[in-house]
């Protein structure tokens, strides 16, 4: 038996599991999206009516707008902080390992547990955040963090950033470790200060890290629903209803399995399109640098 056949046999269990838990559910969702299946009973073929309902209802365009806004907020802040933390840790090797672990700890928590903890922190009555502002004499900054439509989405996004900024930091830090030390030595000899080294050496050579971190954070954020579900249930007034949460509500709240499947396919196409275009642009940027 050839070496290639040996490798195929080793890969077979993983391929079977992927087919069962990945490919089959995808095709099932596509099939259900053309029915009005309600969870029990027979399926009735209705064609494109579920998709037509999505396109005809302005509520779902509002959900899409909230989802994209949430994604932009999280991705920008998470990657900016991740880059800054990585630059700081790269310059402080003595605390690098401990700080890196500390930043990754929040991502090990269940999103549901983290959401309940932050729900208490955000509480307007005795919550940790408002009480801390009171102690610091900043009562004028106290807010109803999850009850104000103007700031609720930012409050939920802050929790997601807190949980996953460690991932971005680790990715950027790995990129920093691959930069040759000779470049920094040459830059210092030429009189380049820290800002010039950051903009002329770090940013260009970290292009692959930007591609990986931005792509992963975008995909993860677009399909997020646990934090909005627990923190706000999509409120107030739909200000934090993401597409993933809308699918959850349609499925387990309204028992519209067929319609939820159609929304899932819409989300899949949206994520695939955004990830492809984003990855293409970032790869093009890598080549230009």
UniProtKB/TrEMBL annotation:
Membrane keyword on record: yes
InterPro entries xref list: ABC_transporter_permease (IPR051393), MetI-like (IPR000515), MetI-like_sf (IPR035906)
Topology relative to the membrane: Multi-pass membrane protein
UniProt KW Calcium keyword: no
SUPFAM superfamilies: MalF N-terminal region-like, MetI-like
Compartments, record wording: Cell membrane
Primary residence: membrane
Segment forming the signal sequence: none
Annotated ranges, domain ABC transmembrane type-1: 64-278
Membrane-traversing stretches: 7-27, 67-89, 101-121, 151-174, 203-222, 257-277
Keywords (A to Z) from UniProt: Cell membrane, Membrane, Transmembrane, Transmembrane helix, Transport
PANTHER family according to UniProt: ABC TRANSPORTER PERMEASE PROTEIN, INNER MEMBRANE ABC TRANSPORTER PERMEASE PROTEIN YCJO
Family per record: Belongs to the binding-protein-dependent transport system permease family.
Protein name: Melibiose/raffinose/stachyose import permease protein MelD
Organism: Ralstonia flaminis
Lineage per the UniProt record: Bacteria, Pseudomonadati, Pseudomonadota, Betaproteobacteria, Burkholderiales
Annotated gene: melD
